[in-house]
Amino acid sequence: MIDTMKIAIQQVNKTRVSEIDFANLAFGKVYTDHMFMADYREGTWKNFRIVPYGYMPVSPATPAIHYGQSIFEGMKAYASADGNEALVFRPMDNWKRMNISAERMCMPQIPEELFMESLNTLIDLDRAWVPNVEGSSLYIRPFMFSADEYIGIRPSLDFTFMIILSPVGPYYATPVKVKIETHYTRAVQGGTGYAKAGGNYGGAIYPAKLAQDKGYHQLLWTDGKNHEYIEESGTMNVMFVIDDVLVTPALSDSILAGITRQSVLDLARHWGMKTEERKVSVKELVSALEQGRVQEAFGAGTAATIAHIELIGHDGKDYKLPPVSERKFSPRAFQELENVKHGKSPDLFGWIHRI
Ligand code: COI
């Protein structure tokens, strides 16, 4: 349910945009002038507002803090070639996924009008913040959390939906080293792995830190039952090119249905490449690595788009992959995605939403 979608706008007195060094953006450190907020009360979304970006009052008893009743999305806007438009990549897919997460976490659905109108209005207002620098974009973070004041466990009644925006540079500056994780688990069958729930990410920090202490950047997560099958890489989906075939773990309830993952599969199929979405066992991967048959490995996600993997560690052994300069598919896929996102290549699949 939604009240009439009228957004009240409280603009900043003075924009901060001229203080930002757009040529040297890190990931997720600066936020634009404004943010969007909406309240869910008595079963209805209401009180749509855009306010200056800043701290906000939250009850110390909210289940969002105590029990992780919080979900989010990540998407990006790019400057069009002439710099006049903000091009948002596949926002309707994020909207659909957010509602899948909402259902799993016992939260209300977000109507399409609420998601899209808030996005359009906020980006229009903060248009000057969309970076027009190669490799940079405006990261869009929609999120929803319980706004109850209640520390008992039950489905919450009140919620807040927000969008904040952050101009960002590349997520990883260099290709990454990953370690196959066979002790800790990101997600299990029947769990919340397919939802973009905050707790999935919080629980992954410690195992990733242990790997980082050993010189790796991230983990290759395996299934929570026997650690036999590859699932994801860090906060991304993972894809391999083995014997010229693009192989990626099939979606399941312990794998997030990544929009970049789907876009890479769509491009590969469009280019006539053979693709396989199926179980990928650690055994298969390690033996293909030993035989030099893994031509490419990469993470696919919104933040990094494509994060080339240069090395995979398993059982105390490190397997080096061919240098990125020798890879045929992933650099081409990355470049084509960049071109489509900036409106330089035709939008064959209807991915771009113009604001
Ligand atoms: C993504 O790459 O899509 C992510 O979700 C990363 C984010 C947690 C920073």
Characterize the structure shown.
It is a single chain. The two termini are 25 Å apart. The longest helix has 14 residues, at 91-104. 23% of the residues lie in helices and 30% in strands. The mean pLDDT is 96. It is globular, with a radius of gyration of 21 Å. It has helices spanning 63-67, 91-104, 112-125, 198-202, 205-213, 259-270, 282-290, 329-341, and strands spanning 8-9, 34-41, 44-52, 70-72, 75-79, 86-89, 137-146, 159-168, 176-180, 218-222, 230-233, 236-242, 245-249, 275-278, 294-301, 305-314, 317-320, 352-354. It has two domains: 8-168, 2-Layer Sandwich (D-amino Acid Aminotransferase, Chain A, domain 1), CATH 3.30.470; 176-341, Alpha-Beta Barrel (D-amino Acid Aminotransferase, Chain A, domain 2). By secondary structure, it is α+β, with helices and mostly antiparallel strands. 2-OXO-4-methylpentanoic acid (COI) binds at residues 74, 201, 235-236, 301-304.
